[in-house]
């Protein structure tokens, strides 16, 4: 295919608000009552799962609204743009904004499906995960398979089951996996767990070539300096305290040196912090590796790694510095980040992708392509093409489609 016009971009972070029928049409009859369903009663409209009520916040379905009209109060499906939950309407909204292809995170299941990890009934939880994935691949992305990129969720409570779900959905055409920025905050083992808890899932992601996408907030925890920190401060802090922390976590884990094809996407975390983090991690290894590799200092699992040969400096492969591991395995994603774009050469032009965040409040819709060109002004067309199109095509292993004849 010849180069696609730069009037189109690929968004690697959007969101879908699942229509009410997703689980009711796909769960076995005996689980329909406990499974996710919509109720409309005196308290308004809400999802109910295992008897627990969960309304949809207006901040999750803000597309088409003015900023001064954004509200965290509950919203009904009747009050949403159809593009929030209906795939053909989503394609129309994408065409209007110059979005060639889109990858969407879940809403009711939360960013990495942790709603079902918290289910009291594990059998129901697994069926809900599988029902969501089948719907995502067959119905949502099936409506426009060249334009909508399927991302799946996992039964995080069992990495062996998660590996099987990765393999099952990869065979159906899935291209990405939603994972947590910090599974420890979900009550699960961390990625440093000495038993290798996550290795079956990581190995399956490596073998299928499907990236692990860690959305800001997928730890179900908002970072704060104190319980009374203003919410605007929490929002400002999150990329630094959550996404940068996730990046460092993986750079000092055993997994990146071990799994050649493992890819990690840091979704909606911005990119301006990346040069400092890479530089800092390299500096720490250079300065601290001597004492940390000696016997009796067990705090540093990067240099005294588990499961390896402790006769060398740790058992983890130190032939690659953190900066090298980042360039090979990790991809930063941004919506609007002028400082980060100005540092793109230090980050790596092959390691950056753009997002539109439809239909959340941070979204650039309906001006996505215009904002993208403003953000990337001054860069060469070659770099713009990587950030807007070809990096995503390579990382998620999909062919860029021919753009529509005209934008709507």
From TrEMBL:
Segments forming domain Amidohydrolase-related: 57-398
Alphabetized InterPro entries for the sequence: ACMSD (IPR032465), Amidohydro-rel (IPR006680), Metal_Hydrolase (IPR032466)
Keywords associated with the record: Hydrolase, Lyase
UniProt entry tagged with the keyword Amino-acid biosynthesis: no
Keyword match Lyase: yes
One protein family per Pfam: Amidohydro_2
A GO molecular-function descriptor: hydrolase activity
Gene3D superfamilies, per database record: Metal-dependent hydrolases
Highest taxon of source: Bacteria
Lineage, broadest ranks: Bacteria, Bacillati, Actinomycetota, Actinomycetes, Mycobacteriales
Record SUPFAM superfamilies: Metallo-dependent hydrolases (SSF51556)
Any Gene Ontology CC annotation: cytoplasm
GO biological process: secondary metabolic process
Name this protein carries in UniProt: Amidohydrolase
């Amino acid at each position: 295919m010849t180069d696609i016009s730069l009037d189109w971009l690929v968004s690697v972070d959007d969101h879908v608000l699942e229509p009410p029928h997703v689980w009711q049409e796909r769960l076995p009859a005996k689980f329909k009552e406990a499974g996710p369903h919509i109720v409309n009663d005196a308290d308004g409209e809400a999802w109910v799962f295992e008897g627990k009520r969960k309304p949809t916040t207006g901040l999750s379905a803000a597309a088409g609204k003015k900023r001064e009209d954004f509200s965290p109060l509950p919203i009904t499906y009747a009050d949403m743009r159809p593009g929030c939950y209906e795939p053909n309407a989503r394609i129309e909204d994408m065409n209007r904004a110059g979005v060639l292809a889109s990858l969407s995170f879940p809403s009711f299941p939360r960013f990495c499906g942790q709603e079902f990890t918290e289910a009291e009934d594990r059998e129901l939880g697994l069926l809900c995960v599988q029902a969501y994935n089948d719907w995502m691949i067959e119905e949502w992305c099936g409506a426009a398979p060249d334009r909508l990129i399927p991302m799946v969720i996992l039964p995080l409570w069992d990495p062996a089951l998660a590996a099987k779900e990765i393999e099952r959905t990869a065979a159906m055409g899935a291209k990405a996996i939603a994972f947590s920025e910090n599974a420890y905050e979900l009550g699960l083992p961390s990625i440093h767990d000495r038993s290798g808890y996550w290795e079956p899932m990581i190995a399956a992601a490596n073998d299928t070539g499907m990236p692990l996408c860690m959305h800001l907030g997928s730890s179900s925890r908002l970072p704060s300096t104190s319980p009374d920190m203003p919410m605007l401060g929490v929002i400002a802090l999150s990329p630094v305290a959550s996404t940068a922390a996730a990046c460092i976590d993986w750079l000092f884990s055993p997994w990146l040196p071990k799994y050649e094809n493992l890819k990690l996407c840091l979704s909606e975390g911005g990119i301006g912090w990346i040069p400092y983090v890479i530089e800092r991690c390299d500096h720490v290894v250079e300065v601290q590796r001597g004492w940390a590799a000696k016997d009796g200092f067990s705090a540093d699992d990067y240099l005294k790694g588990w499961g390896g040969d402790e006769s060398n400096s740790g058992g983890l492969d130190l032939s690659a510095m953190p900066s090298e591991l980042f360039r090979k395995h990790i991809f930063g994603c941004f919506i609007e980040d002028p400082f980060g774009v100005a540092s793109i050469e230090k980050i790596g032009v092959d390691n950056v992708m753009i997002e539109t965040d439809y239909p959340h409040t941070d979204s650039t819709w309906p001006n996505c392509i215009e904002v993208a060109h403003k953000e990337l002004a001054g860069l060469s067309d070659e770099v713009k093409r990587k950030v807007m199109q070809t990096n995503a095509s390579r990382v998620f292993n999909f062919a860029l489609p021919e753009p529509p004849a005209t934008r709507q």
